[in-house]
Input
Amino acid sequence: QVQLVESGGGLVQPGGSLRLSCAASGSIFSIYAMGWYRQAPGKQRELVAVIISGGSTNYADSVKGRFTISRDNAKNTVYLQMNGLKPEDTAVYYCNRSPPFPGYWGQGTQVTVSS
Output
């Protein structure tokens, strides 16, 4: 059974920063592209950042320049450094392979950006 556990979310003011972590168990993911996704209530889940096995990254236009995805393959962990947070970044953040495997979704971690 593959398990992905997200952590690091919280409540921050606009302009603040958070660092999310995604710890993987039950699988070795170092050879796979991994992504961070987010979903706000009533909205479709969207891909915000991707990192491939070789280290190349891609970002959604909405987060480009503010978010940085990285990975530590020795720790089976993917990170998302979020700076300059905006209220529209409020969502539950998930990690998964990219393209995602439907059965790999975890509980996510809530990010709330509000004054």
